[in-house]
Amino acid sequence: MAAKIILLLIRLLVGGIFVYAGAAKAWETQDFARDIQHYKILPWADAAVLLAVYLPWLELLSGLAVLFRKLYLGGLVAIAGMMILFTVALGSAWARGLDLQCGCFGRNQDAIRTNYPALLTRDLAILAGAAVLLAAVCKAGAKEMAMENKR
Amino acid sequence: MAALLALALLPALISGLIQLRWNTLESSKEGEVTLATVQVLENSDKRVLWVDARPRDRFDREHIPGAVVLNEDEWEKAVPDFLEAWAPEKQIVVYCDSDSCDASQAVARRLREELKLENVWVLKGGWDAWRQR
After folding, report:
1. Pick from A80, A12, A56, A40: nearest CA to B97
2. pLDDT at residue A90 tops 80
3. What are phi and psi of A77, to 5 degrees?
4. For residue range A95-142, what is the model confidence (pLDDT) as tens digits?
5. In this structure, are residues B4 and A65 in contact, taking their beta carbons and an 8 Å threshold?
6. Helices marked H in A1-115 — which ranges?
């Protein structure tokens, strides 16, 4: 029972964070594109613009999928994938000594701006949450398969 | 997963079409000037006040000669020193590390909005542009 409550809380937190992050940026495409460009990872500016248009909606829909358990596994995999991407991008920006705004929750909302250890800790915590939820899905799936085999 | 990736395409396309003016991304940066423009100002009778918006440790390490430090982290503390160096006829040029930082834009905005100063510019390329001049 306690495990179920903990999983529910993690699901609400991870899903909620992604819904918020996506909604905050979905209509701030130019600012978000500039934030992405500042990471100096993508080869051309247009790629940053395309990503800035698409990524917030993927975040929003993945968050909703996790919150409402529709396309749940897909939502979790997308969130885990994005978190790995964000963590690598932040880590590389830190390693290159870039002074930038993370762009995670839109403009002027990054209270821990350029504080790389705090930002990375936050990202890793969200990634860990998604991993726990994914593990729970796999465990439930394995249990179901074992019961099917017994029958 | 594939369904989600595809589902996100539709709203992204719609919002993209509504929002984007593809060619305005670079020019939408507010009040940016190139180093060449600032040098023209310096060579004319206009006086320039350099404002370093980077963290103090970076300012202490190296900065543009004559610059004053004014960043968001120690705004209240640094404003009096800035005002001491400022004069109404001076052109204020704010810089941070490079094109990849936002600190200069943020400081320039606060100078315009909170201190009601005019003639506030942001150096395109920041400290990197100065170093490579």
Report:
1. A40
2. yes
3. -65, -40
4. 988 777 788 887 655 444 568 899 999 999 999 999 999 999 988 887
5. yes
6. 2-26, 29-38, 45-68, 72-95
Identify whether the C-beta of residue B128 lies closer than 8 Å to the C-beta of residue B35.
Answer: no
* Residue whose C-alpha is closest to residue B105's, from A127, A113, A139, A52: A113
Tokens of B70: 């004014």
Distance from CA of B22 to the nearest CA of A (A): 8
Stated as kind and residue range, the H or E segment containing B19 is helix B2-19
- pLDDT, residue A107, reads 63
ipTM of the complex: 0.72
Q: Which residues in chain B touch residue A78, judged by CB atoms under 8 angstroms apart?
A: 1, 4-5
* Backbone CA torsion sign across B80, B84, B89, B94: negative
CB atoms within 10 A of CB A123: 22
pLDDT score for B116: 92
Q: Is there a contact between B25 and A45 if contact means CB atoms under 8 Å apart?
A: yes
What is the rounded average pLDDT of the residues A40-53? Answer: 82
- pTM equals 0.64
Instruction: Tell the residue number behind the tokens 């992204």, with chain if given.
Output: B12
Q: Could A57 and B100 be called an inter-chain contact, meaning their C-beta atoms sit closer than 8 Å?
A: no
pLDDT in tens, B31-73: 888 888 787 777 666 688 999 999 998 899 899 988 999 998 8
DSSP structure class, residue A106: B
